Amino acid sequence: MANESEGNKRISPLLEYGITKAVLHCLPNILELNKAATVCKSWNETAKIIKKNRNQIYSTSNIDSYEDYSCVQELLSCMRSQPCVCLVFLTHAGLAEIPPPLPELKLDCHNGAHFGRCTEYRLLHYLRRSMPSDCIIVGGIANGVVTSTPSLLTNEVEEGDGYGLLFIPEIQNLSIRNFHLDRQKMKNVGKAITSQTEEVGRLLNIKDDDQVQCLVLLGTDAYKESKCIEALCRYFQDKRNQNIAIGGGFVEAAIHPDVVDGDREYGITGLVFCGPRVKANSVIVPPDATSDSDIERILVQLKEKHLSSFSGEKMKSIGFMVACVARGTHLHGRSGVESAIFRKHFPTTPLLGFFGNGEIGINCLGPASLTTAPQSFQSNLPSAPKKSRITYLHSYATTFTLISFPVE
After folding, report:
1. Which H or E run includes 90?
2. Distance, CA of 392 to CA of 394 (rounded, Å)
3. Which of 49-53, 94-98, 136-140 is the least confident region?
4. Any idea which of 51-55, 195-199, 262-266 has the lowest mean pLDDT?
């Protein structure tokens, strides 16, 4: 009897773990799982294991109104991965009339008459209230947005209201750093790049052992920020001696934990994708690439170069698109041309982006090619001479950035 009792005691924790895991695994969404994790220590540990094995990326959008959150609510009701980064781009209709809301604004108690004019920021407060507390919300408010639905249908909203969201969970082989440089930090970074390079990593929230593969930059004032943006790009290309993908552009207002909603002060927001097994490429669709076939040739080359870097691993990808406000319908005579071509060649990759007042990026097609920014359309995107100056800032262009990472 004593031996049988001891055996039951030894097997009991295993049975308890198995039952707990089965119960938690059946919960409908990540919010319910997080609630269950607060029951006791063992449930919390089991929930951590479950979340670690979930790596689903989610996207959603509303192309009619940024006051309608039904698509977000629907997504949250079935979202099973814990997002660590939420990327959001909203249209800027009415932005000029929006006063900065209070940093600690509460939806239930705020004066409705005033808050009715803050529709863009009401969505952000809804996200902050709904997302896990450690989920970083980053993005911008722009002239137009490029979005993907949960079923990966792409849309380009150039006029009117709309927003797009991309939720990225914590993935073992991927680290995403973020930073925001205000006026003073931009000066500090400029000084550090030229004389105190060891300080740059601290200012950009980047660790010494981070293997940077991609840099996405969001500016708000091309005239005031161009020198700092070029210095940042050169730092990653030269000082760190890395052939990294670079993309981004200029938004009307930044969205970042260090930015008060409605703040018009200029600054640079950055996302840095790191990891030894992360693959990233970027291309520029230059001003004179105006036909569908021109754009398709560039994206086909992006696809070929990107896929050639895989080694049979199971990969997931995300894409960023930033287009000049003068492209889109103004150039093609119809909406959704460039995002549709991307979708044709990358059918399972969520695409998010915006229409901006200036584009940031380079052609980065792998370690074998020198990154360059062509001034005119060339179907094969040949490498420039080694001494040629790389152009990071563009106009009347579109930038595509593609990032892939292995999942277990």
Report:
1. strand 83-91
2. 7
3. 94-98
4. 262-266
Q: What CA–CA distance (Å, rounded) separates 224 from 271? A: 20
Residues, the chain = 408
Give the model's confidence band at 299: pLDDT under 50 very low, under 70 low, under 90 confident, else very high. very high
Are 302 and 402 in contact, with CB atoms under 8 Å apart?
A: yes
The full DSSP string for 199-222 is: HHHHHTT--TT--EEEEEEEES-H
Residue 239 is predicted with a pLDDT of: 67
Cβ 65 vs Cβ 162: under 8 Å: yes
* Residue 247: both structure tokens together: 């993309």
Residue 231: its pLDDT value, please? 93
CA distance 309 to 212: 16
Helix (H, G, I), strand (E, B) or coil at 74: helix
Nearest residue to 338 via CA among 278, 404, 398: 398
**Range picked from 110-114, 243-247, 404-408 for highest mean pLDDT:** 243-247
In angstroms, the CA 211 to CA 378 distance is 31
**Residue extents of the structural domains in the chain:** 2-52, 58-169, 175-406
Nearest Cα to Cα of residue 157 among 328, 379, 284, 357: 328
Residues 173-185 pLDDT 10s: 899 999 999 999 9
Tokens of 295: 């754009």
Min mean pLDDT across 151-160, 276-285, 303-312 is at: 303-312
The per-residue DSSP string of 329-398 comes to HHHHSSSSHHHHHHHHH-TTS-EEEEEESSEEE-BB--TTS--B--SS--TT-PPPPTTSPPP-EESS-E
Looking at CATH, the fold of the domain delimited by 58-169 is given as: 60s Ribosomal Protein L30; Chain: A; (3.30.1330)
* Cα separation, 61 vs 71, whole angstroms: 7
Residue 119: the pLDDT is 53
Query: If you ran DSSP here, which 8-state letter would residue 107 be given?
Result: T
